[in-house]
Amino acid sequence: MTKEFEVLDHTADIGIIAYGADLKQAFANAARGLFSLITSLGGVEEALHRDIELTAADAESLLVDWLNELIYYFDAEGILFKRFDIIELNNSHLKARGYGEKADSARHELKMGVKAATYHMLKIEKNNGYRVQVLFDI
Amino acid sequence: MTSRWKEIIKKIDDYRWEIPTSYKPGMLVPGRIFASESMLEHIWEEQVFQQVANVAFLPGIVRYSLAMPDIHWGYGFPIGGVAATRVKDGVISPGGVGFDINCGVRLVRTNLTEEEVRPKIEQLVIDLFTNIPSGLGSEGKIRASGKELGEVMVEGSRWAVERGYGLPEDIVATEESGCMKGARADKVSDKAKKRGLPQLGTLGSGNHFLEVAVVDELYDRDAAKVMGIEDLGQVLLLIHTGSRGFGHQICSDYVELLGQAVKKYGINLPDRQLACAPVDSPEGKDYLAAMASAANYAWTNRQFILHWTRESFARVFGKSQAELGMRQIYDVCHNIAKIEEYDIEGKPEKLCVHRKGATRAFPAGHPDVPEAYRAIGQPVLIPGDMGRYSFVALGTEAAMAETFGSTCHGAGRLKSRGAAKRSLKGADVARSLAARGITVKAESMASLAEEAPQAYKDVSEVVEITHQAGISRKVARTKPIGVIKG
What's the distance, Cα to Cα, between the start and end of chain B in Å? Predict the structure, then answer.
């Protein structure tokens, strides 16, 4: 499995299907998919990092919380992330570090605003690796 | 597959269709869709019926899970959905309001005519674009402190007007007088406050816009006159934006919190995005207090934008405010939940009316309609896409009887953003709009393609259905001549 993620079209909104050999990789790829909607990941440098730790009721909530946390960092601090280390992940707990930089209008084209990750059509599937699907409100 | 919906839904008349409770076990009430037959073909493809049916699961839902003709597939609730739940034993769902709490429309009249504005439209659009922060990642010119943000949450539009951004009469011509009661800053997370602080006084991106429009059709000249719309060719102004990241974060926070409440109260839901809690529970009350804070933030936001718009007009046309006559006609919110009273089986009942992509449409005589409009009904503002039309309508008694005082809110998307972007280029969209006499200035070319007129349903079809069904009635149609997009 070489594909990290693909974009899912939805009339009102947009989604991401992300893949990973394990759940950690699928969560990291979903996050990369999210930022690929916002900007071109190739143009983002790893100038800073943020540590994120979350607790949730189940894996689905954790995935939504994880992506919403990243949307928060983009919206509140203007941070574009491009790489993620998922340090710990089980069904209720996530510890991760995201690397990226502050958005700079001279260098980064911002393609789309993302309001939030939703539970709508949310899927976490295990079948020869992991496949996760998330829809965003745009 | 195209006609399978005909086996599922029952035709009531040309504009009303019903999804029976037998469609999906667990539905507490039927679904009711306001649409024409040709529109239903499209709605079915989007499988929006499932979402209308899912909303009918909400405990305490009264009469119907309603769908306006601009309905499209959302997340949890469909966009264009209306659901009223009993306050005494029903639930409130943040998903039934949406992420952009109090996304809404403000309409302003002017004394200017198309002939006066056309020669200066480029200059006007550039001035507006420079004066009003818009686009992704833009920060407002309002450097509010945390304490001031707390005041905005509780006071709404008035906060801006008292600081010189606008006129006291703007407040009167705003739904809820620009201030929803029950707002509490302590029910809003620090994250929401941090997202909201820099974005106060910004237009945003996506489908939000500011439009310079011209009246091109009048259906009811007398009612139009009451609103200050005197003649064809008159220039009006539309502002469409909401509560920005502040509201988005509040919705995310409470979908999560109420997801826990669903388990606590043993509520059976077919979709997690419908997360809800009893209206009368601590969780439900907390959400209502946070939602009201976001509603007030959004009204304040539109108030700032109106002020800067007036500034730009005065600068470009070299006229005083009195000469320009830029009076606010009305301001409606189309993503909100409100506690309102309706007659249910002959008895007055307090209901929590969720309007997600639906506009309140109160009739003449209703006490919540500003005095100036009491004789004609509440103005309803229905923006279309940036290439065609927008409409001004009025609320009706039929809306009170059938849709908990609600009607449509816009055109509704036809094409996904991806599909629009693949088939259209931003520059081509700008050129084809220019050929139609519409000057557009957008922060991002990609967003221009995504928001192209071709990506939307024709709003006039949507409005025609609500007019024919009687849940709002047309007063005027406008066409855009200048548009600012984020």
Answer: 39
